Amino acid sequence: MSVPVTGRASADAGESAWHAAWLPPAAFRELGSRGVLVHGDGLLVDTVLDEVSRACARYGGRVWHGPPWQVDAELVLALREAGPVPNAVAEAARLGATPAVNGTGGGALGDEGYLLARVNGVTVVLADAPAGLLYGMFHVVRLGAAAFDDDLPPRRHRPALDRRMLDHWDNVAVHPVSGQVERGYAGGSLFWRDGAARREPARLRDYARLLAACGVNAISVNNVNVHDTEALLLTDRLGDVAEIAEVLRPYGIRVHLAVTFAAPVVLGGLPTADPLDERVRAWWAAATRRVYQRIPDFGGYLVKADSEGRPGPFAYGRDHADGANLLAEALAPHGGVVRWRAFVYDHRQDWRDRSTDRARAAHDHFAPLDGRFADNVILQVKFGPIDFQAREPVSPVLAAMPATRLAVEVQATQEYTGQQRHVCYLGPWWSEVLRFRPWGAAGDTIADVAAGRAGAGGGLVAVSNVGDDPFWTGHPLAQANLYAFGRLAWDPLLDPGAILDEWIDLTWLPVTKGDPAPVRRTMHAIMDDSWRTYERYTAPLGVGFMVRPGHHYGPDVDGYEYTPWGTYHFADRDGVGVDRTRATGTGFTDQYPPPWSEVYESRERCPDELLLFFHHVPYRHVLHSGRTVIQHIYDTHFAGVEEVAAMRERWRLVAGAVDPAVHDRVAERLDEQFRSAVEWRDQINTYFFRKSGVPDAHGRRIH
Ligand code: GCU
Predict the structure, then answer these.
(1) How far is the CA of 373 from the centre of ligand 1 (A)?
(2) Ligand 1 in contact with 581 (CB < 6 A)?
(3) The Glycosyl hydrolase family 67 C-terminal domain covers which part of the protein (predicted)?
(4) Can you give the pTM of this predicted structure?
(5) Residue 668 designated active-site
(6) What does each C-alpha distance from 224 to 332, 345, 394, 461, 515 come to in angstroms?
(7) Which of 470, 494, 518 is the last residue of a domain?
(8) Strand boundaries in 570-697, DSSP class E
(9) Is residue 674 part of a domain?
């Protein structure tokens, strides 16, 4: 059958009340103006067909899907298993890529991979499974005109990480402290409002498209802090979760649920949630069975246990392996996984106690348990040992558990990086983390750890930065973080600058008025280095925090200094920083394998940007840069503010070229960023000037 290509109702995001982000209709212009053949069947192939049909309806192309095949396609999107393709070039490519012919073995493209080539005027995407076809189609969209220019030698594309997940910290009911979305800076939740499911499938479908187009394939739909209403998603409110799964499924996204470890008590009426109790095991098995009856492709559970007051196995004298394995056992028959978070520490610490070090906590708790977790347990580890700061060393847990499936968790929601009021492109930071080699230059990277052996790793996870804001992420430029997350999870070796370029190409250039070059230049000039700019005007040299307690926005140098949270900087009149050495400090450096255990232990060898994370040093300590610590603090804080001022200027200059609504929103955010950066600069500089008594070598104004 040939698919009608005119008169279709268009649900293009560009015509909606929300921003099209990286899929404005014009991003499909090249694809949509061709003859396109889609070969194969299945739910996700239907999605491909729908995308292609809409694009072709808009831009004058043609679509074929089934006989009669009198076609002259310029783009062929085919499942290899669907049999011969009625296009000579594509068929030759299919035969050439077929395992029997090239000897690469069955399933060489995997569940999500594809082969892309352009030969003799035909662009061919071949896949072994429908998801691969979908990802291949989005690749063609990314390439734009380049997909139809010169020949492209056949290349196989497969995700480096099988699990590419976004965790929403969304509450169903508005929480008195954390609101509708915990640490959310983009309005309300896409899923929930005031205690009920939103049931807005059009917006959710657009969200799923955006995620699939950057490679995300899993999502959890509620906050890791599972409160009373949210606990019910596992049972009474399961229908709401099933409805979300229904909308996300055509884009290859599997739904997960955050559950409370106390569920057998709070939902099941049992007297205990002890993981070794038979009744508890039976309860989880039955509850999980019901989940899979409703949602056959359900991904699994996400659990925050014995952390910041959440219930967990400790109450029963059991450990985290006992707890995680309990849920793993219930999920195993259905192919699900339990994602158990390693974010466990004492949040009721006495600040006078210098022997307890929050940075040590995850390793102390979990490293001894290596080898004890069931196969379908994924331990989800925050990338750093403390809590999503703009600079931290990589968590030593990621190098300490070779017999455990590990996932790396980053934070797209900008809790500690400017709360989507500041521009802070996190691609370079995540890239640095993923490329880090805990065992030294010859060893694996963190990306290798997340990939695991034979694809068995836990993958990459980000806490979502999305809400019901018309621009999805509050700050329109924060969309780039979501996009970069997906792309880095697909290929951690991608260059973050190139990812930004892709995002600019897809999001802005198709809708730019006039010459696109200045817009591209401006975006790069503002965003490329924006994470380092943020780092410059906030807490110095890796020491972290110094934010307002509670909401975590803006400076408050001593805000956490005398609290129970374990986040201290120990500044006094002589120096600043946390001594985490084994020689004289908390011994945290010992949690790293060599060479880092030695590098971090040594004041001389420790990288400047982490110096105050590992060492307490005098203000006049000289950095590798040649500057003293105190002068570095002054210099970076003055420089950071100047950089933000320059961003503001640059943005003004592109006023006529981008949509006025977007321009206004970004301009308003840049004003706030500038105000806030000045506040940071003045508080930090003044604080350290008063503590140290050391004047600025350049005589600039310090209050
Ligand atoms: C941070 C954040 C909390 C969140 C926690 C977590 O501490 O401030 O809001 O619940 O991380 O990751 O569980």
Answers:
(1) 24
(2) no
(3) 473-700
(4) 0.96
(5) no
(6) 21, 16, 22, 13, 45
(7) 494
(8) 575-576, 617-618
(9) yes
